[in-house]
Amino acid sequence: MNLVRKLIAVLGLVTGLLLVVLPSAALASSKGSTPDPAATLGVSLPMYTPPTATMRPPGFTSDADQAVAAAEGNREMQALHARQHPMTFEPYAWIGVSWLVDFSYHGKLVAQVVVSRAGHVTGVWTGPLAVALYARGDFATLFGSLWVLAPFTLLFLVPFLDLRRPWRILHLDALVLLSFLVSYLLFDHAKLVAAVWMVYPPLLYLLGRMLWIGGLRRRRRSDQRRPSSPWLSPRLSVRVLLIGLIGLVVARIALSLVSFPVADVGYASVIGAARIAAKQPLYFAGAAHGDTYGPIAYLAYLPFEWLFPWHGKWDYLPSAHAASIVFDLVTVLGLVLLGRRLRAGREGWRLGLALGWAWSACPFTLLALIMHTNDGLIAMLSVLSLLAFASPAARGALLGLAAAAKFAPAALLGLYASHRDRGIKGTIACVVSFAAVVVTSIGMYLPSGGLAQFYNQTIGFQLTRSDVFSAWALHPSLDPLKLAVEIGAVLLAGMVAFFPRRRSMAQVCALAAAITIALQLPAIHWFYYYIVWFMPFVLVALLAGGDEDAAVAEEPVAEVAAPPTTTARAPEPVHAGV
Q1: What is the rounded CA–CA span in Å between residue 510 and residue 10?
Q2: CA geometry: angle at 468 spanning 465 and 471, to 5°?
Q3: Nearest alpha carbon to residue 542 among 154, 151, 156, 166
Q4: CB 555 within 8 A of CB 533
Q5: What is the 8-class DSSP label of residue 547?
Q6: Cα four-point dihedral sign 141, 142, 147, 151
Q7: d(CA 215, CA 552)
Q8: Residue 99 forms beta bridges with which residues?
Q9: Is pLDDT above 50 for 109?
């Protein structure tokens, strides 16, 4: 309990520092600010079409006509124009940055030319990169720097590494998790097509690995009765793990605070919270589609919006900084406590601290944090649902909150409500609490157009959106394969409600990760933030289960484990639903 108090004290200190640092940063960023066109643009990029072609936006020395003339005079554009004629154009002013001139052929965007404020062409983007402004390189400057990426990557390996057993499969698991960096580095250097294809090998490996841990492998009775080997390698002391975890958490918070950018999804949640605070409709017709999430994705930001109100500008946005940091801290603390629950004594603390370490050192959880996305909310609710797994009603309610935020977690309902854990009464309690949370949250903010409008602006938009970051978006001819993958994901989500018959918490996490990954595989739009959604499940499945975890749904671990060799208390039974 002393360790718990120390962790809570550290988190309390960090939270106090946030309350001091963030308001001052917000004040500094808002000094001398004046209203500008961006205040009316919401979550979309601060771009607009000038009312006249000869008007020069503030800070520009060229007008729209001059920007278009410069774009059309570019040699690459002249060659493209010779092949695709006639083309239409549309100039946009990116406030304080540059002109963006779009060229379309038969209604399809084929090129975008970047023109400086002085009227000089600085870049021509064609093909998928004409559409994907975010994929033109240098996506997150701070994250991509070697002094940030290298140490976090190496530290991520620590909980998995065992030099005495170099061929341990956990080493491969850790390398596969890090292999998403291959895709990201290609993406960060504007190699979009290669980056997209390099996402699928690690996703498919993790899908197979999670299914294997989750129940595909057949266990022999002799395997269940043999003592499990040490799960953590190397066997670092609890003190070392605690100090290392605190250092990682402090480093993450510092990087988050000094990182200015806020992803569009972070802006969307803050703006939605501001609309709720102002008693405005949460769902409305807007070109930016910032209202594409469930109400919880906005309600969760309401306390932070009250503390640090949004002023209608693309600025430091302290409310998004504070929200992402708090979500991250709760996730780390939840993983530590979850490890303590899964193992007895100091081994439980070692497992929990290793889980927190792996999360904190993971490069992609860091990316989501320093870009201040709302994806950390899903990870936090997932971890809390695991902590509350002993209560079907509680885990159903927490899953309902996640589903009412970003919808996809609803696919885990079959797994969470399985009658294998607490019988039919447990299933009913889980489903009822899940439905109560989802129906209540959506009902409170249902738009005037009813469920049809809500669906069209949320799930309907996400299912039909146009994008380039997926194999399906780059190659529409793969639609039959995409349909098959979708059917497989649906079947998997339903099957886990009944199989396997016996499962531990590590297996539950493995199956939850498998379902989440299966849903992401056929997505039209995928991005590295989505790794955060399944990362807590994967870490628990690997570090608490891996190849050594025994089935325990009907047979307590205490009955099959080897007798303790010390005077410490024996390992406690670990049941998925107890």
Answers
A1: 31
A2: 105
A3: 156
A4: no
A5: T
A6: negative
A7: 12
A8: 93, 115
A9: yes
Q: What are 524-548's pLDDT values in tens digits? A: 989 999 999 999 999 999 998 754 4
- Helical H segments across 73-220, by residue range: 75-83, 128-131, 141-144, 146-156, 169-178, 180-188, 192-197, 200-211
Whether the CB-CB separation of 140 and 170 falls below 8 Å is answered with: no
d(CA 456, CA 447): 11
Predicted confidence at residue 539, as pLDDT, reads 96
Q: Which helix (H) or strand (E) holds 29?
A: helix 2-30
Question: Over the stretch 52-107, which tens digit does the pLDDT of each residue have?
Answer: 888 888 889 899 899 999 998 888 988 888 888 888 888 999 877 899 999 998 88
Structure tokens at 274: 């501001």
Q: What is the largest CA-CA distance in the chain?
A: 84
The Cα–Cα gap between 408 and 404 comes to 9
Instruction: Spell 401-435 as b/e; 16+ CB within 10 A means b.
Output: bbbbbbbbbbbbbbbbbbbbbbeeebbbbbbbbbe
What are the C-alpha distances in Å from 532 to residues 147, 360, 383? Answer: 22, 11, 12
Say if CB 397 and CB 434 are below 8 A apart: yes
Tokens encoding 45: 């990029």
Domain segments of the chain as ranges: 47-126, 183-560
Helix residue ranges per DSSP H, 157-199:
169-178, 180-188, 192-197
pTM over 0.85: no
The pair of structure tokens assigned to 450 is 């009813």
CB 256 within 8 A of CB 372: yes
How far apart are alpha carbons 479 and 133 in whole angstroms? 25
Predicted confidence at residue 164, as pLDDT, reads: 79
Q: Which two tokens stand for residue 479?
A: 């639609």
Cα dihedral 179/181/184/185 (nearest 10): -120
SS3 343: coil
First CA to last CA distance, the chain: 22
Sequence-separated (6 or more) residues with CB below 8 Å from residue 413: 396, 399, 403, 430, 431, 434
* Three-state DSSP state, 468: coil
Q: What pLDDT is recorded for position 563?
A: 38
Element (H, E) at 110: strand 108-116
| Token pair recorded at residue 215 | 């129940």
